[in-house]
Structures
1.
Amino acid sequence: MSFLEYAPAPESRAILSLRDEYGLFIDGEFVDGHGTPFQSVSPASEEKIATIANANGADVDAAVAAARRAHDRVWSRMPGRDRGKYLFRIARLIQERARELAVAESLDNGKPIKESRDVDVPLVAAWFFYYAGWADKLDYAGLGANPRALGVAAQVIPWNFPLLMLAWKIAPALAAGNTVVLKPAETTPLTALLFAEIVQQADLPPGVVNIITGAGDTGAALVGHDGVDKVAFTGSTAVGRAIAKQVAGTHKKVTLELGGKAANIVFDDAPIDQAIEGIVNGIFFNQGHVCCAGSRLLVQESIHDEVVERLKTRLSTLRLGDPLDKNTDIGAINSREQLERIRELSDAGVAEGAERWSAPCEIPENGFWYAPTIFTNVQTSNRIAREEIFGPVLSVLTFRTPQEAIAKANNTPYGLSAGIWTDKGSRILAVADQLRAGVVWANTFNRFDPSSPFGGYKESGYGREGGRHGLGAYLSPATAASAGRTPARAVEARATAAVEEKPAKRTRRPSKPAKKGAAK
Amino acid sequence: MSRLAVPKTYKLFIGGAFPRSESGRTYEVAAADGAFLANAAKASRKDARDAVLAARGAVAGWGGATAYNRGQVLYRIAELLEGRRAQFVAEIEAAEGVTRAQAGAQVDEAIDRWVWYAGWADKFAQVAGNANPVAGPYFNISVPEPTGVVAIVAPQDSSLVGFVSAIAPALVAGNAVVVVASERFPLSAISLAEVLATSDVPKGVVNVLTGSPAEIAPWLASHSDVNALDLVGAGELDWVDLEIAAAETLKRVLRPEPGPDAAAPTLDRIAAFTETKTVWHTKSLR
Amino acid sequence: MSGTSLVTARERAVAVLGGQPDDATLRRYLHGIPGVDAVGLEQRAAGLGTRSIKTSSKQWALDRIISLIDLTTLEGADTPGKVRSLVAKAMNPDPADATTPRVAAVCVYGDMVPFAVDALGSVHGDPDDGLISVAAVATAFPSGRSSLEIKLADTAEAVANGADEIDMVIDRGAFLAGRYGQVFDQVAAVKEACRRPDGTSASLKVILETGELVTYDNVRRASWLSILAGGDFIKTSTGKVQPAATLPVTLLMLEVVRDWHLLTGQRIGVKPAGGIRASKDAIKYLVTVAETVGEEWLQPHLFRFGASSLLNDVLLQRQKMASGHYSGADYVTID
């Protein structure tokens, strides 16, 4: 027998007790939605998991109203110390129910259990722990003394890290004193609904966290709602763009964490075995459904062949299959729609003359799957070198000098992340300096931590999540006129007639609805 | 016996040069009492395009300069302004119809704001940056870096203080700017450009357009090579459309600021046009 | 068992190095090998450690672990009686279960070789044939601090007494001082001393003592150096220095062996030794071998565990799998 064909070691689903139907979580209770319910299916088997309520405009109104009440009457008046205690409770409850959450996440999303168990869920707990401690220390957030919460935060999250993105959104918002209405992605609502149960177990005041499920129109209604003070969105650049337009002219503060096409730059003096692992982790982690995925491998021409050969060897050991199997490296593609997009772009790569190589994986009969794939002979102008594929597809390009590597890495409208692999410290720092990306991993890739700010340049969005910066995204200074004013000669000295006669007028008009749905 | 004065021709400031508008257009700038002051250049969309190009070319050098160097260059502007104080006082006095003392106070405030911002150049990253205690064997640091090319609609009600207050914070962090001056009070902006041209500010780092903000701003808001848009002085414009245009390429946008002291100096104004970059590196003794 | 012939090894080294194996040439070569990022290496090893092995694979793995063990006693207090007891355990690990495989070898000090050979009798031989080899530590084990003459005599005596395998230690002092040529020459000379009058040769395992080399870059260079000089196996540790074998170090050495195979076509063995006490840990090593160099390496002349207490833990696991209930320490023999 082959030892490598380890017998299946599926994580038990017995730990998970799911309901057949889930309502919306508004004002501390599960309630029926007024839209047409939809099914959440397992992408690995296409089996139905549960029926999920669909929030319509009235439901959005109710959720925002609940959040507003909770903000005005309870949460904004509560001492930070107590808000912190609630968040610590939530962190502990997540740890207690970690295995259950991991199983639910893999079931609903299709990601390997080893990732949901070892990466997603531990980070979720860490995120709440980190921000819990901030709740009574907001004076140190960098906005001066007594910063204010923004109010009600509308949060729309994607399907690639459902629970982790929830934590990235809810933890800092609550720590800062905001209340939230969060909409999980249509295809992955399950863990957010389990989180609602955790919120109940934590005895969080009703309305502080509201979770509404639905598709893009629900998200758009939430983002565009007049009662919302803050919009935080993670998802595609197309939807992010629509949101930016939708909130134009309003008072809403916005954080957008959008797409990417990260360069993973490998120099010829790189620690080669770790670089191979980093490349694999960079693009095949979570089936490549990662906004910061290292989808463009920029390898120094002198080691191109060696790197590609080693990559192919390594990819051949990856195990694709049942997400709940502890030995699975590559899980299912999240949806048929996403699979189609990956196929389309991959075919475009072939049509444009790139060479496609896929790992020899057995593809299960049911569900949505895509074998880990490498494209060589890719040109910078090819679609697969420019567009975000959001799947397990790596485009390999070459460079000759550090300058060329930097130029190619930056030659994209995106700017979320980048990787550098070299043994030379001075080069790492200089290249990191010049990369136009919000997160740069040197001799590592795809690392996340609640204390570490994350977010993009350019069309990868704006604002940061994580760390002190992520907290600041949910606060405003005590008064607009304080915070760091110059102590210079006072403004009153310039009592010009012109200024006094013409106070600036602020043009306002109703915001337009976004063209596309607000969720990806 | 009075001497006949030699009036100045006010032109645009693009890429370190002082061209007329490529369109050949000018518009009349009048004093508070209605008297003719000058024919200022009326910039066109092509001038805006040229300015963005010049700014883009200057980003790497300015953003890549040491913070100490940027601080000195910005401080040098204050020094030169101080030396030409009388010129600016006279210009403001004529343009805004304020007293000499009021104009003097404005110039002093503008100079002091340069000094204040210049001092931030090599401190801002320390205040806005972080060493992050991540749970793993990593060195992890977050630093603010310039956003790139920032287009600014300067406060419209102020000759100098508003203009300085809008561009200085963007420059501190290492951005290059394209700024549309006050339509009504453009002359001090161009005089300031003359100061910049003779100071150590590299060409292209500041580009000044005069003319109609309503005409030029949409071209800047929609320009794909502009990274950020400061609408501080755009309150009179249809700025929502500008914000929507800017959203096409996810530009960072500062919305109009009402009030008598728009763009008042704050650390937030520096932070607004920076990108927090976080760098991870493994660490080990083995 | 016979390793590579010396002439071939040196010739190959000269060809690979592009020059004679002196300090300068070796330094140029060894320092030209890509570095190791410790964090990444340790993460990869940890990842391999999370593989979950169940049922039939586990059964196979447990038996395979036993057949890859160099059952070891290396005490100052070793006696002929202790060695005979060890050999008995090696031949018949679980008296209650005849299906239990034998270990690959017994590993003893050089002066104990005759007693081991004697005790093994007809079972003495090549583990590939289901027999048990005798491995002797040599070259002033564990410190290696003596003259080359004494090291060679130590080796020759063990071989003459019937040792099939020699576990030598490199001169860590020379290595850390950058005297790579000296380390090369010693390994090559010991390899020569492994020759028997009939032209065959004892297999040479080169102990790096990774706990004293400390850095992974050193381990990688010492691995290349030992292989270039003619070692048939590279071995992590003497067991007398902490840390002894670790999964990251073993993974790194396997990567060297993989690269050497790609370069020359020659297969070199790897032996983690010291500190591997639990079946669960040993299985992680098997996974690491299988996913790094391939399952073909999971055979006695390419992979060994240097261990003593590991064997009993594997036996307890075996008993549990056979009976369905947990076993206890009194149901396995102490040696």
2.
Amino acid sequence: MSNRLINWFKFASPHAFYPLAGKMIPVFWTLAALFGAAGLWLSFFVAPTDATQGEGYRIIFIHVPTSWMSMFIYMVMAGWAAMGLSLNARLSSMMAQALAPTGALMAFLSLWTGAFWGKPMWGTWWVWDARLTSELILFFLYLGFMSLQASIDDPRRADKAGAIVALVGVVNVPIIYFSVKWWNTLHQGASVSINKSPSMAMTMLWGMLLMALCLWMYSIAVALTRVRAIILEREAHTEWVKHLSEVKP
Amino acid sequence: MNAMLAVIRRDLLMVMRRKSEVLTALFFFVIVSSLFPLGIGPEPALLRKIAPGVLWVGALLATMLGLQRMFAADHADGTLEQMAISPTPLVLLVLGKIVAHWLVSGLPLVLMAPVLGIQFDLDAGALGVLMLALLLGTPLLSFIGAIGAALTLGVRGGGVLLSLLVLPLYVPALIFGAGAVESHISGMGAGGHLSLLAAILALAVFFAPWAATAALRIALE
């Protein structure tokens, strides 16, 4: 028996990773369902009604986790992209490509639920708050990454070009965040701030964490499903794909 | 170093042979900035307030116009490939092309801005700050834009894609550039904004040519 239990590099090849991803997808879907059920139960039935915000505050149980995930997925995506660029590994670039739509979805949901939360709480759908604005720009960065990849025909070139965009974006995200923040304080536009919200009850925090875990597992499951599709698409010429039972007519 | 200067000279010479490209961007800047008072109304107080933002957005869009041409012609006739295999590091040549792009499309905007600022009823001090902010900011636009131009080289629908990629990255330049003029008008002093703008420019001068070179090598593969 080898002293290492698993040779990780083995799964760097699409051929080896394809069945592994197929086995992992149901696991992550199950985890997502479990965390989701627990999180929703906690956030709808256990968490107390907020004294100042009423029942409407419960949208933060989806809003905050989607915001976290949108930023986290961008980091992971850039990490995969960097790995794909530096190690010239095809699978890493495919992972980056598979993560982008989920990240964009999270950023969009975060903006959308934020608007729903803002209307009853602040009396407006949108304020030019630093966090809202930088989330919007993050959404644009996702769109830029996806449309650049979509418009380059050669997949390897698309991977590398996308990787550069993702990395430039990672360097820029903090700069954009702080510039928007200082811009906002100088303008003193928004009189409301997310920071002033009262300290949370423990159950609310747990609800949020469970929902975040649920979305995390969901993102992994969806990204793996998508990466399997990308592998099939790009490796369609290889023998092993032609012999897969799901590909045979 | 000599090769870099030669690239700058060559690009400037080519622009001088076809002046319309420079003038188009410049007139675009002038026209866009002149449209805003027509749309918003001629009250001097309001115009003074929106002037920094309008002029900066105008400068941003005018720089975008020329970006796509930064590498396109050289890519089409094979010059870019010769540059890539020449003994001079490609980074230096890319730096030269970026500097040439700024001289052609950024510098005229800086020189034109005070004239447009007068249309918006800015006083002499604010005009000075506006020029200084544009002097620091327009090179930043050229440097960041070079990455986008290299990435979208020879890509379908490159122009629209380029703006989608590059405009979000222009946000800090817009904020600090317009903010400098605004805080000068409101009496807070523009020093902080200009320092931050210069800091971002220093970062971009160092990193952007590398990123653009990497993107060019991918496009040339």
